[in-house]
Amino acid sequence: MTAAAPGPPAGAELRTRAARGSLWIGLGALVSKGGLSVVLLVLAAVLTPRELGVLAIGTLVVTLASQVQDLGLSDALTYRRDRVDEAARTALTLTLVGGLVSTAVVVAASGAVAGFFSEPDARGVVVGLAGVLVLNAAALVPVGLLTRSLDFRRRAVPQTVPGLVGSLLTVVLALTGHGVAALVVGQLVGAVVNVVLAFVVGPAVRPGWDRAVARELLAYSLPLLAAGLAHMGQLNVDYVLVGRLLSSAALGVYSLAYRLATLPYLALVQVVNGAAYPLYCRLEDPRERAQAFRRVFGVVLLGTVPLVTGLLAFAPSVTLLGAKWLPAVPALRGLAVYCLLFAVSETASVCLKACGRTDLVLATSVLHLVLLGGALLLVLPDHGLVAVGVVQAVVAGVLALVNLLLLRRELPTSWEGLAGTLAAPLTGAAALAAVALASLQVPGLHAEDSFVPVTLRAVVAVGAYAVVVVAVDRASLVRVRDVLAGRA
User: Fold this and answer.
1) Least packed by Cβ within 10 Å: which of 19, 271, 274, 480?
2) What is the pLDDT of residues 404-418, one digit of tens each?
3) This prediction's pTM
4) Nearest Cα residue to 350 out of 284, 280, 253
5) Which residues of 216-235 are buried (b: 16+ CB within 10 A; e: fewer)?
């Protein structure tokens, strides 16, 4: 018999487990995303913009293909309430097939991809990274079952260790002169560690098949797959158009700006929403779900606003990686605003998905892709990278409003309740920006390309944010503490 993960608890314990789970996911994200950040900074320091652009092409192709291999089945398992054993075995079969097909398609298309971007060196990178697809596909179901049961402590192991191993290997290879191959080898080794750990710490599951269960899983997941493809298209259409209409060097510059700007999203928003989704799925009362969403929304703003404000204030410090990256500054600032608005949009979208409205998630994802792709085609040829960040921010703002409006139709959520979460982060952000600007006038701290002055300014600015937030909204912080302690 397959040993499925135990079902989730109910009531206050459920909310407490979800809140504590966000800490485990956060720990995993801190290690894995922190490792990726170190990798990005090391690669930016040792590679040219063109070489970083070649890596961006390979990563782009594999990221798009990885969306197909999942088929939305991880979320379908989390949403499901019965026959979980049969669903897990069937889902594993489907994901393995999806992984094999995705790998074969990517390898076969590698030459066409290199030709599309006029970058012959991209072919080897695409083929090398394709092996990651089938390995990661095998790990999806065990990790998905851990998510469903809110066992985030065990889930943190495959979330954390593979990224750490792959990042360390990549850094070592990059610093010893292996160039773009460093990332390819690091990703492959990390994927092997991932699948091994998923089956060691996750529930025991083997491939199987149940036609009726497969139909039920796909009925829920296929709209999510379509939405995921549109979502991946929206996240990567900028990469495609920059690489195609400009150059691989321009793509390298933009890739650095985009990855730095989206670190707040990866480090915080994905973490919080990852813990919130299974909680939303288990809260059947719309009022409880609405209350949970308001608190999640507040946490997202509380953590994202200072990170985005810091990116706006410290964007010129990207020259710490070399003067070759100075052209990334305008795009980085526009993309920082995009990150905040996109975080709002995605937080609402995750709650819509838990309400069973996968049709709305699909519709908004397609809308985002169409608006962004059309706008970039209009402005990119004449205005270059400077316009990309602005377009991203404007389109993300439109989608944030649309998703919030749709969510208000599903849940009893008021604008007043959401607006109440803005006071502390916005006041703190104003303090952060003021201190960051004022510190530029201090002798010895104005240099943007020196590590020690930049670090000192950043620490003082973040400290100002923390002090103001505690003064403005101490009660919210106390509530978070009580939930984590199991007292609320």
Assistant:
1) 480
2) 999 988 888 777 777
3) 0.68
4) 280
5) bbbebbbbbbbbbbbbbbbb
